[in-house]
Amino acid sequence: MEYVSPEGLRLDGRRPMEMRQIRAEIGAVSRADGSAIFEMGNTKVVAAVYGPREVNNFSICISALFDMIAIRCEYSMANFSTGDRKRKPKGDRRSTEISMVIRQTMEACIMTHLMPRSQIDIYVQVLQADGGTRSACINAATLALSDAGIPMCDLVTSCSAGYLNSTPLLDLNYVEDSAGGPDVTVGILPKLNKVTLLQMDSKLPIDILENVMQLATEGCKAVANYIREILLENTKQLEYRRGV
Ligand code: UDP
């Protein structure tokens, strides 16, 4: 199948290096300490953060004993998030793996030493799935953690890129993702210039991997710029409401 036309356009009309439209909203869940909705094209996710709070589970008291913080993350897909009704929204192998990946990625930016003997819970749920849900969840979690006032050394942002028809493609949608080509998901700390996440689901020659990774990193930087704007806008609104 042709994923890039001779005119250089993808199936959804994007250029190879073009991201889908992104949109974010802070404070979508009133009961959570911090929350956000993040959309990348038709992929839409919500993140809710609770904490830092006292550890409430015996199994994670072990971390508290060693003056550590327990960060928990749960990724799930709503039954209505995919074309076919999703029968198992969480607890399957894929959800367990993505929960772990998101937790490890978020741990890289949280200043855990400032909150010993406490716990932070991050819940991310996919409302609409169209490829790149783990990236969207990481971006939503970053915003939700910021909204909860959790101290972080940088904003983690994520984006994916793939390689189809001998062309590197930024931010794959479901049709491109399911084409069977490589899909590289990258997470970065943009200010510290560090990579915190790198996942790939098939083989790629090393020189092409570098190009695809570079493209995904550019996507992460674009997301970081957008997230900074949203956070700034949110802070201005809070100041306005407080009459500062
Ligand atoms: N997907 C689906 N049902 C599932 C799992 C995945 O429809 O049970 C779709 C969904 O659109 C998802 C895409 O397949 O975004 C690619 O899934 P993958 O495991 O590669 O993770 P993602 O790209 O979402 O991080």
TrEMBL record:
It is found in: Cytoplasm; Nucleus, Nucleolus. One of its GO terms (biological process) is U4 snRNA 3'-end processing. Its main location: cytoplasm. Gene3D superfamilies: GHMP Kinase, N-terminal domain (3.30.230.70). Residues 18-151, 154-219 form the Exoribonuclease phosphorolytic domain. Pfam families: RNase_PH, RNase_PH_C. GO terms for cellular component: cytoplasmic exosome (RNase complex); nuclear exosome (RNase complex); nucleolus. Keywords: Cytoplasm, Exosome. One of its GO terms (molecular function) is RNA binding. Belongs to the RNase PH family. This is Uncharacterized protein. It comes from Arachis hypogaea.
